[in-house]
Amino acid sequence: MGVDVLAEALSITREEAYSYITRGAVRAMRYRSLPYYVLRRPIRGFEEGTAVLVGREGPLVVRGYPPIRRVLLLSTAVPRHFPGEVYVEEKMNGYNVRVVMVDGELLALTRGGYICPYTTARLTREQGEALRGLLGEMEGYMVNGEVVGVENPYTRHRYPEAPLFGFFVFEIREASSGKPLPIPERMRKVEEHGLRGVRLLGVIGKDDVEGLKEILRSLDEEGREGVVLKDPEYRVPPLKYTTPAANLGDIEAGMRFFFDEGRSYLYSRILREAFRVYEEGGGLEELERRLGGAILEPLLRAIEEVEEGGQLVEEFTLRMSSLEEAREFLAFYEGVGAPLLYYRVAQRDGEVLVTVAKAKETFDEIARILETGLSPID
Prior knowledge:
There is one protein chain. By secondary structure, the chain is α+β, with helices and mostly antiparallel strands. It has five domains: 1-62, Nuclear Transport Factor 2, Chain: A; 69-91 and 200-242, Dna Ligase, domain 1; 93-197, D-amino Acid Aminotransferase, Chain A, domain 1 (2-Layer Sandwich), CATH 3.30.470; 244-307, Methane Monooxygenase Hydroxylase, Chain G, domain 1 (Up-down Bundle), CATH 1.20.58.2250; 313-359. The protein is built from eleven helices and 16 strands. It has helices at residues 3-10, 14-22, 74-81, 117-137, 183-192, 209-222, 244-256, 258-280, 284-307, 323-335, 361-372, and strands at residues 26-31, 34-39, 51-55, 58-62, 69-70, 86-91, 95-102, 105-110, 141-148, 166-174, 200-204, 226-230, 239-242, 313-320, 340-348, 351-359. The strands form four sheets. A five-stranded mixed beta sheet has the order 5-13-12-6-11. The protein has a four-stranded antiparallel beta sheet with strand order 1-2-3-4. The protein has a four-stranded antiparallel beta sheet with strand order 8-7-9-10. Helix 1 packs across helix 2 (14-22), helix 7 (244-256) runs antiparallel to helix 8 (258-280) and helix 8 (258-280) runs antiparallel to helix 9. The protein is globular and about 60 Å long.
């Protein structure tokens, strides 16, 4: 796979393309017979996670998904940011996937820009006809959606409407430019092709912050993650806001593996909750109780588990159609740097179940602390 294709796709010189590859800013990959490049950091206006897929008819640039700014103070940010009415869509707790079609085949790209064999195969089996119909009609576009459920390798959250595996469309974008379809048009396309979209929770005026807070209170009571706020024509970028239930749940989940994830989980989520309490003008005692429990309880449980001889692992099970599919996924997963402690493969009722355990640094660090009594951090 020559660097000339990458240079042409990104409008850079051959020497620059070669330099980006050798320095690790761009990674050369292959999915079956399809070569592709992944941008591991922003380059010349292309977002991190942008992929260049080298199909038979030429390269397809699939723009990375732009980060969405987070709101800390609703009453300040929302009226100032939006020019008019605001579409309030549900933010689901899963992983961001871009689906494109190259050489007649569906491909599912993670936010990092990698073609995930498992997600590609599962979406092709379960929603392939609908996705092919939409992307065949809209050549050069990508379907952006959230994969949720417990049968996936990345983020596992059980939803009543998709407990195992579900794909919910939240945008349709032009692949090479990243320009999104207006929301009403996207919703029509999703419905016409029999796909599922994220929930539209309401359309409010930009000054109706109380109406927005009421939506968020209902989501919080249900334990749902939050909202993405959008202008219907994308005249301004979207904003996002998460519920207290999601913030505290993330802290609790992250603190189980506190040397792996705790530090990154803690700061941002404590900040969100502090500004929420400030804006609402109370609830400090309740926050202290809930926040303290979310931080300390999983941490103490992890220490006790290691002391009692347990092993701290993140385990998940994936449902596949063949042993070849299982081998392909495991090779990909290890190839992108996921440290596997072990995996098990079982065949049952015509399906292949792959159970994977990811190794966690937290186990080794706790074991060393219990042995030496010394802290690995200052």
